[in-house]
Amino acid sequence: MKVTYFPGCTLRTKAKDLDLYARRSAEALGIELCEPKDWQCCGGVFVSASDEIATKLSSVRALIDAKEKEQPIVTVCSACHNVIKQTNYAMQNDETFASRVNAYMAQEKNPPLPYAGEAEVLHFLELIRDKVGFDTLKAAVKNPLTGKKIAAYYGCLLLRPGKVMAFDDVENPSIIEDFIRALGAEPVIYPARNECCGGYVALEDPASAKKKSNAVSDSAKNHGAEMIVTACPLCKYNLVKNGSSLPVVYFTELLAEALGVKEV
Amino acid sequence: MENKNERRKEQILRMSGVNPKKCMRCGKCSGTCPSYDEMEYHPHQFVSMVESGDLEPLMSSPSIYKCLSCFACVDRCPRNVEPAKLIEALRLTVIREKGANHLLADQIPALLDEEMPQQAIVSAMRKYSK
Ligand code: SF4
Ligand code: SF4
């Protein structure tokens, strides 16, 4: 299976592990990741105002690349996924926005056909759930993570807004828990798993981010977890920076470990 | 002045797509907001104050920079009002004015540490600056 793979800026810099283990795992699962040529940063966060056009064009360019290749567009970073998915939704559902975007795109050197949200946008976890299947994943596991108690940390970006992301049940998600089970470990359910870590506010108000992050890591610990798993570099940063007593790991690292491709 | 405020309110409602009249004042958005303690005005107040045209106090309040865009208030509002989109529209209205950026590129190096992911920097710039 071939997919368009959008790594995003942070996976090239501070979150190289998130990317590296995604690539190794994809290979082990028979998925070919095709990177768009000259992709640009998604901007990190979606701006919800419908009259914001230019800030969404990098996502549109990546989406058009996937559409032209007739592949789904896959990301591992929660933030890239959120921005690209929300942009695609706006292209499908907001005609005024879409026509303004297409007017910009018509100015490109090799103008693409007008885009109307045709590409399929998948997070890497959805790719596993919906295209690979958790049963197939389970069968591919070489080193089951038996006995590990793992807390899935969804945060906000994978889930919300629920109407747009359609990732899982917004208040009671199960995809990462199913993923953890497929790897042979034991998921731990805890109340703060879909609350915010503080996000970008860490930059100018670290005290605020600390409060939110500690609420998450304490909740996971109090419910018996040994480890927190995330898909988001900023969630990982906030949790670790603010003193999580549990290790915080990327889901791709666990995946690569279980598939036996962590070290090659 | 009256007219300018009216126009501004219309613009905010248009760019956010929010209809504050749908709000039933239950306060659930503020109850679920992780930044409640940091805010001077809370999500439900953004909704009611925009409806009554009380824009100035909101626009000059630091509360517009305390929202995390976590969208908890959006998904948990029983009336689908989407308060976060209103906060975003107010913040954009402020920072789109010339010279009104909340965060400048020059300020960033002092705010960084070794581990800070790029994602945090680009996100903050996108939310706080034009
Ligand atoms: S949750 Fe919705 S209906 Fe309730 S106060 Fe907030 S905006 Fe209004
Ligand atoms: S989006 Fe902003 S206002 Fe809404 S719950 Fe999150 S932090 Fe609070």
What this model shows, in words?
The complex is a heterodimer of chains A (264) and B (130). By secondary structure, chain A is of the alpha/beta class. Chain A folds into two domains: 2-124, Glutathione S-transferase Yfyf (Class Pi), Chain A, domain 2 (Up-down Bundle), CATH 1.20.1050; 142-259, Rossmann fold (3-Layer(aba) Sandwich), CATH 3.40.50.11810. Chain A is 44% helix and 10% strand. Chain A contains eleven helices and eight strands. Chain A has helices spanning 16-28, 57-69, 78-93, 95-105, 124-132, 134-140, 162-165, 175-182, 206-222, 233-241, 251-259; strands spanning 2-5, 32-34, 73-75, 121-123, 149-152, 186-188, 227-230, 248-250. In chain A, strands 2-1-3-4 form a four-stranded parallel β-sheet, sandwiched between helices. In chain A, strand 1 (2-5), helix 1 (16-28) and strand 2 (32-34) form a beta-alpha-beta unit. The longest helix of chain A is centred in the last third of the chain and has 17 residues, at 206-222. The model of chain A has no long low-confidence stretch (mean pLDDT 97). With 130 residues, chain B is mainly alpha-helical. The two termini of chain B are 25 Å apart. In chain B, 44% of the residues are buried. Chain A binds chain B through residues 8-10, 13-15, 41, 43-52, 55, 77, 79, 156, 159-162, 170-171, 195-196, 198-205, 208, 211-212, 215, 232-234, 237, 240-241, and chain B through 14-17, 34-35, 37-38, 65-66, 68-72, 74-75, 82, 84-85, 88-89, 92, 103, 108, 111, 113, 115-124, 126-128.
Strand and helix layout:
The complex is a heterodimer of chains A (264) and B (130).
Chain A (H helix, E strand, L loop, with lengths): L1 E4 L10 H13 L3 E3 L22 H13 L3 E3 L2 H16 L1 H11 L15 E3 H9 L1 H7 L8 E4 L9 H4 L9 H8 L3 E3 L17 H17 L4 E4 L2 H9 L6 E3 H9 L5
Parallel strand pairs in A: 1-2, 1-3, 3-4, 5-6, 5-7, 7-8
Chain B lengths: L1 H15 L11 H5 L10 H9 L3 H5 L12 H5 L6 H13 L12 H4 L6 H11 L2
One iron/sulfur cluster binds next to helix 2 and helix 3 of chain B.
